[in-house]
Specification:
It comes from Urochloa decumbens. By secondary structure, the chain is α+β, with helices and mostly antiparallel strands. It has 2 helices and 4 strands; from the N terminus they run H-H-E-E-E-E. It has helices at 2-25, 38-53; strands at residues 58-70, 73-83, 89-98, 105-112. It has a 4-stranded antiparallel sheet.
Length: 116
Amino acid sequence: MRSLAAVLFVVLAALVAGAASERLVGPAHTDVPAGTHTPQIARFAVLVYSMNRGAKLRYVGVSDSDVHPHQGGMKYKMVVTAADAGGATAQYKVLVWGIPGTYQWMLLEFKKIKLN
């Protein structure tokens, strides 16, 4: 359990560092807290799911997202596209909760969307 916590800490630190570098070169977003842009949250979800399940998924993109306040933090609902090791892509329904500006983030749901 400690090793998973250490890995998650390193992952979160890398995401925060990436967010800081993005702020320096990207446009200013005054309505969105630093480090909480939807693509960053989607990458976090794919990475945490892949590490937890031993899956070799790679983030491709996010096509739909909704964010709203929930229990002292923010809840992100999104549709994320990820590729497996063979390059085949699939869409996933993702739910992430977190408190912007902290390391308190949780992946609540990561379900493959079945296409008819």
